[in-house]
Amino acid sequence: MKSPPSNDVMNAERDFQRAQLYGFLSTAFLYPQENWTEDLPQLGSLAVDVDGLHELLSVGPFDLAELQGAFRRTFGLANPLCYETEFGLPHEYRQSQELADISGFYRAFGFTTGGQIRERPDHLSVELEFMHALALKSWRAASQDELDRLEICREAQRKFLGDHLARWLGALPEKLALTPARSPYPELLRFAAEYVRRDATALGVPKDSAPSWDLTPFDPDFSCEACPVRPE
Asked: What does the pLDDT read at residue 119?
């Protein structure tokens, strides 16, 4: 007699839902080329089963031009808010170590960055997209009853959330407290941070202290003297 499916296998539908949410959030934290606010009803329907999480979203209607302006006002052209390693490290040399660790996760699961939109591995959108990819892998493994592969994917998600995404994302919403009016990004960020927190808890990620939110120090010996675009 075939044994009954495990709880993990029965949760394949939840993994597919998680993949959709992470995929939506990943796209929304890039400079908008399309109007993601039009898809918010779908996002709310995905989150409706997560104990009122959809109620955190109170984003009004925006057209694409308004949304692009809101992104520029919220994040600026060179704002460090969306990059994990811009915060909490004792010196800039640790950034390369952390970036290498993040990239190691990506390589292990065949996740590559690049294409038309190029961002650093520690960008919020890229880390969310990686979770999207892992959730899809979990869904496929659960659907096909591949329990060993499923546990590998689960453990990778626990480790990545605990070491990276869930560890730093939770403190970001307060950093946007002074964002100018008519921006949907503070609400979206609160939603994302709470969703990631709950997802980490559901996966059994141990709670850890949040990193320091001082900016990672810049090399004091760095000089722009040799830069070819330095004004005379």
From this structure: 82
